[in-house]
Fold this sequence. Notes:
2 copies of one chain form a homodimer. Chain A contains 16 helices and 27 strands. In chain A, strands 1, 2, 3, 4, 5, 14, 15 and 16 form an 8-stranded mixed β-sheet that branches. Chains A and B meet through helix 1, strand 3, helix 6, helix 7 and helix 8 of A and helix 1, strand 3, helix 6, helix 7 and helix 8 of B.
Amino acid sequence: MDYTKFQKISKMTLGEEKADLVIKNGKVLDVFTNEIHKADIAVCDGIIAGIGTYYEGKTEIDVNGHYVLPGFIDAHLHLESTMVTPNELVSMAASAGTTTFIVDPHEAANVSGASGIDYILDQTEASPANVYVMMPSCVPATSFDDNGCDFTAAKMKPYLKNERILGLGEVMNDPGVVYGDKKLHEKLELFAGRPIDGHAPFLPGSELSAYALAGITTDHECTTYEYAMEEVRRGIHVHIREGSAAHNLEAIVKGIVKNNTPTSEFSFCTDDKHIEDILRDGHISYNIKKSIKLGLNPIDAIKMATINTARCYGLKHLGALSPGYQADMVIVDRLDKFKVLSVYHKGKLIDSSSKPQIKPCPDELKETVHLAPVSEEAFVLPIKNKQAHIIELDSSQITTRHVIKAIGNTDNYQPVNGLNKVAAVERHKGTGKIGVGICSHYGIKNGAVASSVSHDSHNIIVVGDNDRDMAIAVNEIIKAQGGYTVVSKGKVFDTLPLPVMGLMSDAGYEEVNKKLKRMIKKAHNMGVLDDVEPFITLSFMALPVIPEIRIIPRGLMNTSKFELIKQ
Amino acid sequence: MDYTKFQKISKMTLGEEKADLVIKNGKVLDVFTNEIHKADIAVCDGIIAGIGTYYEGKTEIDVNGHYVLPGFIDAHLHLESTMVTPNELVSMAASAGTTTFIVDPHEAANVSGASGIDYILDQTEASPANVYVMMPSCVPATSFDDNGCDFTAAKMKPYLKNERILGLGEVMNDPGVVYGDKKLHEKLELFAGRPIDGHAPFLPGSELSAYALAGITTDHECTTYEYAMEEVRRGIHVHIREGSAAHNLEAIVKGIVKNNTPTSEFSFCTDDKHIEDILRDGHISYNIKKSIKLGLNPIDAIKMATINTARCYGLKHLGALSPGYQADMVIVDRLDKFKVLSVYHKGKLIDSSSKPQIKPCPDELKETVHLAPVSEEAFVLPIKNKQAHIIELDSSQITTRHVIKAIGNTDNYQPVNGLNKVAAVERHKGTGKIGVGICSHYGIKNGAVASSVSHDSHNIIVVGDNDRDMAIAVNEIIKAQGGYTVVSKGKVFDTLPLPVMGLMSDAGYEEVNKKLKRMIKKAHNMGVLDDVEPFITLSFMALPVIPEIRIIPRGLMNTSKFELIKQ
């Protein structure tokens, strides 16, 4: 600690001066000893000066015997996925007790490279929480991707000294890690000795060992207790994920409870959690409470959201309530089914209604849809071999089925029987690449739906039952410079602009949500199946790393065999 | 991991090539899950390539179902204290299972500054163990000390990039930490964010909080469970010490067992352990076994000697048996009252008889006694105020009593009634400073004992019952350029040369021990009390940080009031 700062704070530690703030009459959780102390917490300059029963403060807040916990940590999430600006999501989750976010700006980097990462850093600098960044490791995600930036090791170097950059993010290219892809290993070497997040939904034993050998330190993709244990045995810290889409907590925590497994190698993450879910259930607080409900010891559960994660990421000033630690505190009414009563970040009460001073978004990040308007001819799909390759959607998961159907040859396929055309339109470099295919189990009639949010490269993805409406939808996205749109019978019904990299709105959550609900309803009224969320489903249709078949700007892709399909 | 290395090792991990070494049929302790796996360990280039049941090796060693544990770590020790050369001690302790040593070359730095530290680094570079160094923080130990070097923060800077330097060693100047001594805090700032070892035998609550606030991360001076817990609550990792002199383990471990305290914040250290004790009892293995005997869970005890310590010091490649970890392994017959069967460092069997290539000791480190021969007049002690201040020794501890005795005035006090004269002779810079006083409960008659080992400044300390023999003894130490000597009736009985900084022999342990035993016997025959170890007792008589009274080159010192005594 800086000498001047020490001299100031230590006077309060020693009781020679009144502290800035004293939290009085708390039951303070000690994550080092698993004890609960009836004590007061003295805070100075956002740092815990001391814990005891003898402190006086310029401000004193009586918490009436409620529990004081260290601020919760989300070990892995993406801020771009909720469509609101980073600070809005962070502020809302912070009010629910999450005071530290370890984010991977993978989407932003795929669109805008370093500028996208800088945006995430800038926008969260004044947030009422600690936002750390893991350098996106797989930009582009695959060699088939047409994205906005090749984010090489050389481009990462300037970030190494940034204190908010902790390590390397979510290394999804598992074969590249295991079998020694040189460019990927350049990135691993660059971050050697630092945290390196993995992404290995399943690797057989010896490959998982090689994955660990390469320096992967965490994974958040485990869906079973057994596989989580295979990772932990190899020294990989497991983030138990419970977000809006993925629900892995029950399976893993049940195993932990049943086997009395030590919990030091586990943390919690959300990966992606939407604002309505945060408002309803909480954020990392939900992971804690759900674990306790499943039988986990409350203190172990809280440690999985605090000290375990802080240590996993080398955050020596976070995760505990002790002298010198940052005064990030969550006040709760009880230890099991708790309610978050108030949250402090650096000793300041978090007020969800306050608006921190945030740098404006640079213009270049609002102009990321780089292509000229398309004509309906762009969506012509000739059938030559009397067969059609169809992307069959499954509303319950993001995998698809590759269905081959006998069909008559034609110069331009016209969707019938509830089938749709789907197209991926390159939008970063104006290459003119457009891939067109057929999908089933979506269901739109007399119109089209389009989006600039489309993992991982975030090109424009459009689905419709006629070429004209598809062209109108894509042109609307170009005009809005990103967003969601619904086109019905030749007219734009409505558009939700997502001008920030084509990923995020700069309007507030309420406005986004209101418009979104109206557009989803319209899409369903136009025939989109009830169990299909029209935009989220669309956003995964161009993702080349998930089986079995996808549409990308280069054409239809067999993602199980990792090769383009000749139509 | 370096790419070329990864490519080589991963082939063995994946089973594509035979490993260098496979340890077959082990019961492998997994410190992450607390499981014991029946498995084989594949090693390549000193690194664990994989753990499984399918590995083949160029060399295969069957351990017949014995347990394989990670190599043990001594969290804190001084290599200079055993008088043998650093590699000899390290090799011997390594054979007992300690494969990592976190050493504080405090004595070497007090004599020779940076050269002393370099010596420790050089001498242990080829040792069959990992030797890491903490930068000595308190050189000199106090403002009253006349030592060989003022080891400032500026002098530490060049060491910051050395991978074997982990942090700042044993900060003994507690008031300096707590009340903000600027020069000391310069050192703390220099090592901010790194491990900083404390030394706080007792600090009241708020001072201990300030100690933690200043960035102290460990302490090894706890003697009670209650005080250890006070430290752990403040985020200070506690090293439970069990060495030749200090025996703190029973008290602390009993408390841990009784209270079911989590053990993650505890490690083991020896601080100082003599070779005969290592040969008889083992090294850190003894701490583990004693803890288990006291009721600690064996796996928790082993973790206190492995992963806990590795994490405390940020040694990410040590403390566990998992892919990518260094292949430091201890094979034992059982988990409780175990016998160490064999030890591997970087995948190589440790052979205690092998002699690694070690750099010769630089000449300058063998010429550290810088003063001209003294005459017997140097020990003249006039009594002016009809009273004598007497250092009363207590054979059971290193504290002394300050006794004031009425006595007639004289130009030169002559010891009677079993009293002795004791003197501290500055030896580093030839300043000519000599402090002379009186001590009781030592007992030498018709002679003198002298030593160049005298904490913390390691000046020459001499005790005797007549000035002539004292002068002969000091001159013998000057001639030998350091060592222990016994002088009887005007003649040197024998001298154990300790030419390396006046602290260590360059002869082997057996020779040192043989000579030492003979000299100790002689001293006792000359009247030194049975329960007084003549040289060790002498070595603490100039230590100004222990109550109540000491002799230093500047004169007699009241160490309780921290002031010189006017005689």
